[in-house]
Automatic annotation (TrEMBL):
Keywords: Cell membrane, Membrane, Transmembrane, Transmembrane helix, Transport. InterPro entries: EmrB-like, MFS, MFS_dom, MFS_trans_sf. This is EmrB/QacA subfamily drug resistance transporter. GO terms for molecular function: transmembrane transporter activity. It comes from the Bacteria. Residues 20-490 form the Major facilitator superfamily (MFS) profile domain. Its main location: membrane.
């Protein structure tokens, strides 16, 4: 499958892009697994490091923050240095940081190591989409994006399953150690198969990086720690509402700066003139939010209310992983033939419906088979969300903006994940307080893998059920965005 002659690259004659894409998919799969694998290990990490729920969720939030904020600059870095070299640098950093995560002995050090791991992931992710955009013709890019989308969907679903097997086996540290051999293999394959593409001269907007990082941190910290401080004063004049308001204000300054900067902006606002690009970013934000947010309450419910081991609780996700992987090739073929509005709205709406159903059956008396029904629906939905959204977002982008466009798209996805992680932490604490008044909120640290007594189980299950309604509702915003898609210009 040769790259078309119209692409401005230095690809060799007869170059086949699929082997290179498969090589990069291995690393991409690994970093996405690490976005969710901690969810199934949450009780084990709480026990092993003596942490509470909120502290353990920071292990994921810190990773997602460090992953999301630099994406705006790492996409541009790939355009300037070359996606191959940026990808390999990020993969090496991610692999070393994974080793560090496994050897940590405190929750604070684990959070720091996860930050470094997130930085490595931020270097890798935009390069996969940039290589697809620059080596596959627009009219047939859907099949390539279907592989990218299938990787994203399956990884986020398989992560808890792999985590459960490792936590029940050698221990929670191995959810990080396993990345080391995978990272080495992925590095060797990418170094051999990924081509060196032409570079484009870009400047870097460090002021924009600073504003986006500060704004994101203030909002996430305010949301995630809000319940801890009863949504009031933290210290002195600093309060939770003040932090969130300051974060929103800083983001406003960031957008203003992007519109006024004379050199190349960190976020080329002109890309948002393309309707599908703008709407795809809204939709993928809702997906990142929902998929990240649903994992924590469901895993806590499975292990604390039902008393399942990490492996058995993760097996509840098998229908999602199997159906998402099986149907992604079908979705890939349909992307290039159908109007994007149809396929993406279907996937997003089905995922929202599945989460509403999951919330309804998250009770102490639900039979196991009933939990598998919404999981299967989520698997179908994932096949028709990830790849169609990615393909629709990038189809009309100019080649010189491939890195910037993929960086923006992945940033909005990760922003959704960060906000989902922070919001679900706050909501879980709030619902536990409402449903189990007077009960210590760190009780799940002592009861992981053992059924709660009936007088506590009902309240805990209700709290997790109510928490699942939030990601289900957020996905409806994505449905609205998808319904407004227009036909791609290449068609």
């Amino acid at each position: 499958m040769a790259a078309p002659a119209t692409l401005t690259t230095d690809l060799p004659t007869g170059y086949r892009p699929w082997p290179a894409l498969w090589a990069m998919v291995i690393g991409f799969f690994m970093i996405l697994v690490d976005s969710t694998i901690v969810s199934v290990a949450t009780p084990a990490i709480m026990q092993g490091l003596g942490a509470d729920v909120n502290s353990v969720i920071w292990v994921t939030s810190a990773y997602l923050l460090a992953y999301a904020v630099p994406l705006l600059i790492t996409g541009r870095l790939g355009d300037r240095i070359g996606p191959k070299y940026v990808y390999l640098s990020g993969l090496a950093l991610f692999t070393v940081a994974s080793l560090w995560c496994g050897f940590t002995g405190s929750i604070e050090m684990l959070i720091v190591a996860r930050i470094v791991q997130g930085l490595g992931a931020s270097l890798m992710t935009p390069q996969t989409m940039a290589v697809i955009t620059r080596t596959f013709p627009a009219a047939s890019r859907g099949q390539a994006m279907s592989l990218w989308g299938a990787t994203a969907g399956v990884a986020i679903l398989v992560g808890p399953l792999v985590g459960g097997l490792l936590v029940d086996g050698p221990g929670w540290q191995w959810i990080f150690f396993i990345n080391v051999p995978v990272g080495i293999v992925a590095f060797a394959l990418a170094a051999r198969l990924v081509p060196r593409l032409q570079t484009h001269s870009h400047s870097f907007d460090w002021v924009g990086v600073g504003l986006s990082a500060i704004g994101m941190f203030l909002i996430v910290f305010g949301i995630q720690e809000g319940e801890t401080y009863s949504w009031g004063t933290i210290t002195g004049i600093i309060s939770v509402p003040l932090l969130i308001a300051a974060g929103v204000l800083v983001f406003g300054l960031f957008v203003y700066w992007q519109s006024r900067i004379r050199t190349e902006p960190l976020v080329p606002l002109g890309l948002f003139r393309d309707r599908n690009f703008s709407l795809s970013n809204i939709a993928i934000t809702s997906v990142g939010f929902a998929i990240t947010a649903m994992a924590f309450p469901f895993m806590l419910y499975a292990q604390v209310v039902r008393g399942l081991t990490p492996t058995k609780s993760a097996l509840l996700l098998v229908p999602m992983a199997v159906l998402a992987g099986a149907l992604s090739p079908v979705a890939g073929r349909l992307i290039d033939r159908m109007h994007p509005r149809t396929i993406t709205a279907f996937g997003l709406a089905l995922c929202s419906l599945a989460l509403f159903l999951l919330s309804a059956v998250t009770t102490t008396g639900s039979p196991t088979w009933l939990l598998l029904v919404p999981m299967g629906l989520m698997g179908i939905a994932n096949a028709f969300m990830w790849a169609p959204l990615a393909a629709t977002a990038t189809r009309n982008l100019p080649m010189s903006s491939a890195g910037a466009g993929s960086g923006i798209y992945n940033t909005t996805r990760q922003i959704g994940a960060v906000l989902g992680s922070a919001a679900i932490a706050a909501l879980i604490e709030a619902r536990l307080t409402a449903n189990l008044p007077g009960v210590p909120q760190n009780m799940s640290r002592h009861t992981a893998g053992v059924k709660l007594p009936p007088q506590l189980a009902d309240g805990f299950a209700s709290a997790m059920s109510q928490s699942l309604l939030m990601p289900a509702g957020v996905l409806l915003l994505g449905v609205v965005a998808a319904l407004a898609f227009t036909k791609p210009t290449h068609a």
